[in-house]
User: What shape does this take?
Amino acid sequence: MLADLEERFHENTARRNLSAFEELISIGTLAAQFPDLTQSQIAARLGVVQADVSLGIACLYHRKKLEKEIDTVTASKRYFRSLLPKLKRGDPLGPCPCAPDLKPDTQMWDVRGIVMQTAVGQLDTAIKINRARIDLIDLEAMLVDLARVVMRYQIKKK
Assistant: This one.
């Protein structure tokens, strides 16, 4: 049963562009279904860090308050982590400072802790990866991998 849930988690995160909140709720739900496993064991099975399991459990527990008081669609994992002390104290959460005023065609993403910004135009799509530390020696290999992914999703000429 754990293997099935694990597989569904990976399919959902790969198939859709989950918001940080959706990903954390998914992780928290899986953790709640297996109380005998440690957070570290769940993290290892899902390929996430243990802190995301802890944060997912907290987000699941405080889900209604979070959905009521903040914009869960644009909030980053970093922002959810900053809310934990307020959640524990029962304080009001306030607006999310992590969603800057963006152009209408620009969107922020937090995919497994990697924050990205996309801007979609008529003929191009720009992707900016924020605060990812890549060694220069690995950069070319990463760009080759990225080009393969882009080619797979690129709209074909008819």
Notes: The CA atoms of residues 15 and 51 lie 23 Å apart. The mean pLDDT is 79.
